[in-house]
Amino acid sequence: MNSSPGTGRAPFETVVTEHGATVLRVCRAVLGPHADADDAWAETFLAALRAWPELPVGANVQAWLVTIAHRKAIDVIRARGRHAVPADRLPERPSRHGNPDPARPDLWAALAALPEKQRLSVVHHHLGGLPYRDVAALVGGTEARARRAAADGVAALRRLLADPEADASARPSSARTRRAAR
Known about the structure:
Layout: H1 12-31, H2 35-51, H3 61-80, H4 106-113, H5 116-127, H6 132-139, H7 143-162, H8 175-181
Helix pairs in contact: 1-2, 1-3, 1-5, 2-3, 4-7, 5-6, 5-7, 6-7
């Protein structure tokens, strides 16, 4: 791997190649598998390119990129509230990266059905590879709460995928909800 002159790190193109699929998975998990996720992916790497010279040499590049992707995805969500949504949509172009198994479209629906903190915790830890400390910094709360939200989210995904006909409102979405139901 060639490094950028004088920096001792890989060229930015290599970073895009190595981490592009992970960043796209995070964007699509937060925003859904449509063009907004692709836009957030592009915005992530534009912002990262601008900040690349200032990134310390020993930094965790994947965690840095996932953090930027999270913020860009949140920006897209905020922008959606300020703009009209078109009624007619062009068909989605299939992508080789960032989608769960195409034979399992129910996975996107199950992920979207999770409460926001659970969804984001699952996305950032399991898809983005961030440690729970970084997940907590992104979604708010403590490391223990991020760990719990991810565990609850994975458990809910297993239930949803095992029994897609079950009524989502009948299932508790978190330990707090289960305690309240007792």
